[in-house]
């Protein structure tokens, strides 16, 4: 016993340590969990301070208030007009009339690309500088074509993009296809394509306005009349296999569906941009353009079958008049704004740079923003289910037939740093109305004030707000359109 007594304190210490190990382990585990949770909440490389929030607010304010820049802000993938090659499909039989549409948007020295014809045409000396270079398409007799309703020129047109690639144009990122009666808003073509990585495979365009056309062809097909864009690397892949692909589809109708068939074989879907317009309608485009989606207007088409955009003008003249407003704010062309004259109980629909409609009574924004059926569908049938979008009647009551004011002129006021648009009434017979309320017939001019907004598509899509301004001139209404203020809502 005596020999073991010196070891008892040591045994007691070991026993005490063993009994405290669970508590020590739990303590360390608790400390580790607390430390880990702190890392999750506040990572060591992220320091948040009030100064960061103030900087964020400052940048946001700068974005929303600086709208008078003359040049669009370069963001996205820095795509510019010089990076785009336009490929225009044309017919020698229609060249004399269709070339006038090309002159409207083609910019010598700025735009790049060419026109592809089936046969040679005569070019006047004074026209050579205002039109793209002309090429004759390669023969296509070796390709079978069996569609009895179509024309084999579709094969020629479908190969234009591949032939354009073989021209060897330098520094091209995008090939944009269009017809000889397609009119592009080139600034908005750049804005749309700048959103996409040109080094990836992209096939960008839009469907038809006709539901029946989309069923017959495809909702997944870009319509060539409205125009579509293909990225450079995708065109390179397409050119390698397109001739083999075309031979597999002799029964297809046009060039558009042949292109889409080859895109399907390349596993590339259509990226939809609704600003490309096929315009598969007849009649008056007032309702279609005034109800334009919140997206840049990229192109228009089919001018030989629709009414002139502005009454009393020839088709080419009316398009030239519409494009005048792009000199001041191309990003905002035909963009929609809605407001109300609460004193006179009028509903006001603004399509900037195009038209204004004033209607008696209060119509909801939900109704006003929907395109009114001033047009008929591609099959000339009065059937509202034939469209690929929602529509509404022009009016539910004779007293609510809109008074239409078309753009007369646009200018920039240096002193006010504002764009001033003058809209003049379109005189037409109005139905008799017995409503005891003020009539818009006394208004002959609407003046719209706004700031240039080249960066509007860098923000989340939103319509501009509209406000009725006081006026001392009889028969003249003043409106302001622009960014919506904080908590600004369209309500009466």
Model description:
The chain is of the alpha/beta class and about 500 residues long. The protein has 13 helices and 19 strands. The strands form four sheets. It has an eight-stranded mixed β-barrel with strand order 11-12-13-15-16-17-19-18. It has a seven-stranded mixed beta sheet with strand order 3-2-1-4-7-6-8. A two-stranded antiparallel ribbon has the order 5-10. Strand 12 (about 345-350) and strand 13 form a beta hairpin. The termini are far apart.
List the total number of helices: 13
Q: Structural class of the secondary structure composition?
A: alpha/beta
Distance between the termini: 103 Å
Query: Got a strand count?
Result: 19
The dominant shape is globular
- What is the mean pLDDT? 87
Strand content: 15-25%
Q: Tell me the major beta sheet.
A: 8 strands, mixed, barrel
